[in-house]
Amino acid sequence: MARPSHPEAMTPHRPGSTRTAPPQVPDDFWTRRRMLTYLLFDATGLPYMLVGLVALRVAFALGRGPEAWASLMEQFSHPIYVALHLLALVSVLFVGVRFFRLFPKAQPAKLGPAKPPPAPVIVIGLYGAWIGLTLALLVVLGGIWP
Amino acid sequence: MKPLLLRLEPVIWLLFGAGIMVGTMLLPAWLLTVGLGGPLGLLPEGALSYDRAHAIASNPIGRLVLLGIIALPLWKGAHHLRALFADWLGHGPDGLVGSLLYAVAVVGSVLGIYAVLTL
Lengths: 146, 119
Fold this sequence. Notes:
The complex is a heterodimer.
Chain A: E1 3-4, E2 24-25, H1 33-43, H2 45-64, H3 66-76, H4 79-102, H5 119-141
Antiparallel strand pairs in A: 1-2
Chain B: H1 2-37, H2 50-58, H3 60-89, H4 94-117
Helix pairs in contact in B: 1-3, 3-4
């Protein structure tokens, strides 16, 4: 059985004389390939939230002192944390690749007198910033500099 | 709750947008070092010792980046999970689900500000 989609989907601004049936969501909607990718993209929200909460623990441990820090690092080597961080890494890469590819399409056609740069320029800029920031953070957090 | 969420939509959308953009840019290096490299012993000796980690994080830029890594993924996650729940459950419970998810993001962000200020 299909169920109704968003109640206001396809509603005209002014009621017309033509009656239209409300749109329906098929039950197997999530098995369609494009929908599945879209749902997976949204589902990456869970690893993102968990990573944010884990980062909060990191900040509190740094505030408490060396023992709290050592104990947290010890916990992070537990397989559950390793699995979460691996899943989060895959999620972040998936989000980055998909979001940066779609980003040029989401730009306004015009912003005042200015037009956005061509799509390849935007994508190259985003990847440049992504790789640059990642390398800079790896250098600092990886113990290379300072 | 739904009318309030609609009124707050510009703020929520801004934080969500910052989360997906800045969060995605910052997280790979964070996960590779603090999440995996350090605990598994793949980094040079002392790279994430307490003194070094504290010195990096208590620098003004370090505090800002750490707050970004705490708060922005929470907003990205809350907004995307709300959309996921709306797809699966329909729009009936959306006001409640959205409120709960954003509440986690608000509390996490406030605690994050407190945590990075008291490092």
